[in-house]
């Protein structure tokens, strides 16, 4: 009788171990999937931020170039007006 109980307990322990191992495998898969999804979301978010920063940089660059061009044309016009007078051209 005692030997039968020991065999039954051993069987139960093996069954419990098998179920626990299966649960651990499932948890590992779920965690891996979640980490992959989080990594993908973070990657997409970083790409959007990067593209926005590049766009802002380009806009700022264009703004600076326009300001420079305007400054040059204004200083050239001012130079032209102060340097050449109608009296000198005659």
What's the structural blueprint in terms of helices and strands?
Layout: H1 2-83, H2 86-89
Q: What does the largest sheet look like?
A: none
Structural class, by secondary structure, is mainly alpha
Beta-sheet strand percentage? under 5%
Summarize model confidence as the mean pLDDT: 88
Q: Per the principal axes of the C-alpha atoms, what is the gross shape?
A: rod-shaped
Low-confidence stretches: none
Whole-number total of structural domains: 1
Measured between the Cα atoms of the first and last residue, the distance is: 133 Å
Number of strands: 0
Q: State the share of residues found in helices, binned by percent.
A: over 70%
Q: Specify the number of helices.
A: 2
List its salient traits.
90 residues, mainly alpha, 2 helices, 96% helix, 0% strand
Question: What does the model show?
Answer:
The protein has 90 residues and is mainly α. It has one domain. Helices cover 96% and strands 0% of the residues. It contains 2 helices and no strands. The protein has helices at residues 2-83, 86-89. The chain is rod-shaped and about 120 Å long. The termini are far apart.
Question: What's this, in brief?
Answer:
The chain is built from two helices and no strands.
